[in-house]
Amino acid sequence: MEDPTLEARTHEGRTLYLARDEPERGSKGAFFVAYVTEDRERRWGFFCSNCEAFDTAVDSMGRIVCNVCSNLHKAEEWDAAHE
Questions:
Q1: Which end of the chain is least crowded, N or C, by CB within 10 Å?
Q2: Which are the contacts of 3, defined by CB distance < 8 A and separation ≥ 6?
Q3: Distance in angstroms (rounded) separating the CA atoms of residues 39 and 17
Q4: This model's pTM is above 0.90
Q5: What is the pLDDT of residue 3?
Q6: Phi and psi for 65 in degrees, rounded to 5?
């Protein structure tokens, strides 16, 4: 049975699956988790819904940033010593 919450997208010749039910709030739009497989066994990264790019980065604090449009998801928990 096909999962209606997954959306297949092609990136650099590879099919990735966006989990529309796993959003992370961003400053300009949501980030969605992208998986390599439909069974969600292998996580690939994030997809920026603001500019529809896979060019994102995540740091050790859990911040997500889109390298194309600067959409930003701030870490849920942070320590001011790391700023």
A1: N
A2: 38
A3: 9
A4: no
A5: 82
A6: -135, 140
